[in-house]
Structure prediction request, 180 residues.
Amino acid sequence: MQLGEASLTAGKPREAVDAYEHALRLQRDFPRGLVSLAGALRVSGELTRAAATLQRATQVEPGTPAAWFQAGAVDFESGHAAEAIGKMEKAVALDPDLYGGRTGLAEILWRTGRNDRAASELENASTAWAIRPHPRQRSSLPREDFIDRLIIRQDLPFQHQAVTNSRSPRRGRFRNPDPS
Prediction:
């Protein structure tokens, strides 16, 4: 698993796929391994295999929010917005404080023209961020500033940025691990 994570961090998704597949040969129905493999497949552009892997992950352990989040992202990137919304909603239902699930759902809603509901999800995301910031985050943003500072970029799927000031953008945690 660690080799796969290191490969993704180094921008080598194909090597990550190989590492995760090796780990899954040792423990076939390991939910975290399945989700990680699907993420690497998604980054590699293998959306069909990623979707099949996530279907298996949600069958093995239906209570894994990360599996539902990734499944929603894959569905959206495959052009299936309605299915993506349903899966993102499932991820959020399983873990209401899941920041990435909330922002992912908000992005899909926004991109499909459901702006009022997207704004509501961003408000919920600000609460989730304040309650449970990402472990690499030194301190959470003040709740009242969160929505004003969240930029959902239109040019890249599932790229979120929390901006502290105009000179130093910080990338959010739910993004493709592409170093460029």
Summary: DSSP finds nine helices and three strands in the chain. The CA atoms of residues 4 and 16 lie 4 Å apart. The chain has a mean pLDDT of 77.
